[in-house]
């Protein structure tokens, strides 16, 4: 009786693992998280920051107006 119970428990664990694996294969994770923002690199110092906080000038991104002026000299 104990061996039968052990086999049933093992079968249930295997079934659960296969079902979980199947669910992961059918629903791959999305590549972009809601609320995530693209990061850009400052052309002067190389610091990465959110695109909305950077300064765009002549097709290049800068972390501050000072770095924009320094890079354009």
In short:
The chain has helices at 2-26, 65-72; strands spanning 39-41, 48-50, 55-57, 60-62. By secondary structure, it is α+β, with helices and mostly antiparallel strands.
Could you explain the architecture of this structure?
The chain is of the alpha+beta class. It has 2 helices and 4 strands. Strands 1-2 form a two-stranded antiparallel sheet. Strands 3-4 form a two-stranded antiparallel sheet. It starts with a helix and ends with a helix. The mean pLDDT is 88.
Which terms summarize this structure?
73 residues, alpha+beta, two-stranded antiparallel sheet, 2 helices, 4 strands, rod-shaped
Mean of residue pLDDT values: 88
| Global shape | rod-shaped
Structural class: alpha+beta
Total helical segments: 2
Q: What percentage of amino acids are in beta strands?
A: 15-25%
In percent, how helical is the residue content? Answer: 40-55%
Strand tally is: 4
Distance between the termini: 85 Å
Which regions contain 5 or more consecutive residues with pLDDT less than 50? none
Lateral strand order in the biggest sheet: 1-2
Query: In sequence order, what are the helices and strands, one letter per element?
Result: HEEEEH
- Rg is 26 Å
Largest sheet: 2 strands, antiparallel
How is the topology of this model organized?
Blueprint: H1 2-26, E1 39-41, E2 48-50, E3 55-57, E4 60-62, H2 65-72
């Amino acid at each position: 009786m104990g061996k039968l119970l052990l086999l049933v428990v093992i079968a249930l664990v295997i079934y659960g693992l296969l079902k979980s694996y199947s669910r992961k294969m059918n629903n791959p994770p999305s590549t972009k998280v809601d609320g995530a923002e693209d990061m850009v690199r400052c052309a002067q110092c190389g610091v990465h920051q959110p695109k909305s906080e950077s300064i765009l000038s002549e097709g290049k991104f800068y972390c501050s107006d000072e770095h924009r002026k320094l890079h354009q000299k």
